[in-house]
Amino acid sequence: HFRYADVLADERDVLTFLNSRGYAHARVENQIEYDPATHTAEVLYRIDPGLRMYFGAIEIVGRAGVDAGMKTDRSLVLDHLAFREGQRFNPVQLRRTRNRLAQTNLFRSVTVHMPKVAQGDSVQPVQLQLQERKFIHLEADAFINNEEPGLSGNARHENWLGRGTRIGVDASLGRPIQGATFYLTEPTILDLPLDFTVAAGVSD
After folding, report:
1. Cβ atoms of residues 176 and 148 within 8 Å
2. pLDDT tens digits for 5-51?
3. What are the DSSP E strand ranges found in 12-135?
4. Fewer CB near the last or first residue (10 Å), C or N of the chain?
5. In what order do the strands lie in the sheet with 107-113?
6. DSSP 183-196
7. Residue 31, beta-bridge partner list
8. Which residue has the higher pLDDT, 75 or 189?
9. Among 73-77, 110-114, 183-187, which stretch is predicted with the lowest mean pLDDT?
10. Can you tell me the distance from the alpha carbon of 60 to that of 39, in angstroms, rounded to the nearest whole number?
11. Distance in angstroms (rounded) separating the CA atoms of residues 92 and 86
């Protein structure tokens, strides 16, 4: 029996295939001639692939505007792209880029836009809209241990020098142990899910 949902699914499959081959603005429409007596239909798909597109200029937009108000270094953002300017357009690379940037934990939101291009233009610019997290964290707690007051605290920066490096200090004052530990963490080296941390501390 005829199901319109199957027609739409086939239409999406054709469109996905064309997009993956660089046809970013392809259009697929269906025309149906339905026979109610047999519950069958003849489906004609009209396809307009448009121009094959290539990735163009990459624009990074922060909260305050283009390349403004961003504490994260532009080169760090570009390092996480799954595509480069001049490559054939592929939406899979856009999704992969969005996921890579989200996994850095530097941004509250990552949105990818494709600005409209002039008719006949085969270069597709890409706009990355990034909303950064708060990078400075301060915390302090007072406590009583063996009837002696104490104080512990933590201060860290999650994006030191705009390169995603974490630097911080944990400190405590009071008995039985007091001191401080300084640490520096480089995240995700060579695309491995590992952090490299150097730490040094003093205690009394």
Report:
1. no
2. 999 999 999 999 999 999 999 999 999 998 888 878 899 999 999 99
3. 27-35, 40-48, 54-62, 65-66, 107-113, 123-132
4. N
5. 65-66, 54-62, 123-132, 107-113
6. EEEE-SGGG-S--E
7. 44
8. 75
9. 183-187
10. 52
11. 16
